[in-house]
Write a structure and sequence with these properties.
A: 7-stranded mixed sheet
Chain lengths: ~240, ~120
């Protein structure tokens, strides 16, 4: 059984070097799915190249971050009646060959997270970043009562119930688009599964990694998990009331 | 005495400045009221230092000026937190508007393409 009416959402911020290639690969693997590029305030030719590659392009007037870009995608999906949204990064790190697995997992789940941690994976992180990931994974797995080994993975899919939820509430804070959104899904009793995916190294762009950055990452990740686990009171909804 | 005059003058200037901002419609009432209240209170204590003295004796604060500093600090921190709150809310709303604008723009483009295609 496969999922009908799927939207492949690609949040993109200045990814002119890889966007066309990503779209072409997605198209060849899932010719049935529509591709939506959410151009997150790019200052390069990302939007034009995406359009020429045959994707639908929604352009945000300025950079709002992956969280905002994804909520835009969920709003689009909700208004156009899509039953599944799968997020694929524009930098070519995700292998579109895994699209089937991530999408088909929606048959018995509301959210499917592609995990980069599995026996055959080439993906490796070390240092403070690794501790942060383990911490986040432990905390979320406990909240979920089911394993989430890679909560910061951006390769994931959402079914109808998750689309409804994420169209109204999708956090824009640091790590909110990955960890925060999972926490929201858990709190709303959505079913979250995971499936192994392949991770490529960045095609283009900035692999910014040093000690200070890693320490900051750990700190912010910890803050993010504390904030999300304590949440329940005030959530800045950003509605227009 | 000179310190008292200095305090009173500063309070009056602040009051007048905030009031003129309010009159020109640059500052919204909900913020202006707060600052007008602050400068009003400052003016009151500058003109009647006895009031501050009485208040600090009542509250068992040895130095009246410490009470003044303490209250001022707490007030300013509360204002800063309130401003952070407002800012967060506005960021959320602006983001929401940006998303809406992006979707509308796409919808218009779609409609144009459909019209010219038929």
């Amino acid at each position: 059984m496969t999922v009908r009416r799927a939207l492949v959402a690609v949040p993109a911020w200045n990814e002119q070097g890889s966007i066309a290639d990503v779209i072409a690969k997605v198209r060849s693997h899932r010719p049935d799915a529509d591709i939506l590029v959410v151009n997150d305030g790019s200052t390069d030719r990302t939007a034009r190249l995406a359009e020429e590659a045959g994707a639908t392009v929604v352009s945000l007037p300025f950079n709002v971050g992956v969280g905002g870009a994804m909520r835009t995608a969920f709003l689009y999906a909700q208004r156009h009646g899509y039953q599944a949204v799968v997020q694929v990064d524009a930098d070519g790190q995700h292998d579109p060959a895994d699209l089937d697995r991530v999408l088909d997992g929606l048959v018995d789940a509301d959210v499917v997270v592609g995990t980069r941690f599995h026996p055959d994976s080439q993906y490796f992180v070390g240092g403070p970043r690794r501790w942060a990931m383990i911490l986040l994974s432990k905390a979320l797995s406990r909240m979920n009562r089911g394993r989430i080994s890679d909560p910061t993975s951006g390769f994931r899919s959402a079914g109808p119930r998750a689309i409804e939820l994420f169209a109204t509430e999708y956090p824009a804070d640091y790590l909110g688009d990955t960890v925060g959104s999972l926490a929201i899904a858990i709190r709303n009793k959505l079913v979250i599964h995971e499936t192994p995916v392949t991770m490529y190294f960045r095609q283009t762009g900035r692999p910014s990694k040093n000690a200070v950055w890693s320490a900051l990452y750990l700190g912010r990740a910890t803050l993010a998990i504390i904030a999300t686990s304590l949440k329940g009171g005030y959530t800045p909804k950003g509605d227009l009331s | 005495m000179t310190a008292q005059i200095l305090g009173a003058v500063a309070a009056v200037i602040t009051f007048a400045f905030v009031f003129s901002l309010l009159r020109r419609g640059v500052l919204r009432e909900k913020y202006a009221v707060l600052w007008l209240f602050f400068s009003g209170a400052a003016l009151f204590f500058a003109v009647f230092p006895g009031a501050l003295l009485w208040l600090s004796t009542t509250l068992n604060v040895a130095e009246p000026v410490n009470l003044l500093f303490f209250v001022t600090l707490v007030m300013l921190i509360l204002v800063a937190i309130q401003l952070s709150f407002e800012l967060s809310r506005h960021e959320a709303r602006i983001r929401r508007l940006a998303e809406e604008v992006a979707l509308l723009e796409e919808a218009i483009q779609e409609q144009r393409d459909a019209d010219s295609g038929s």
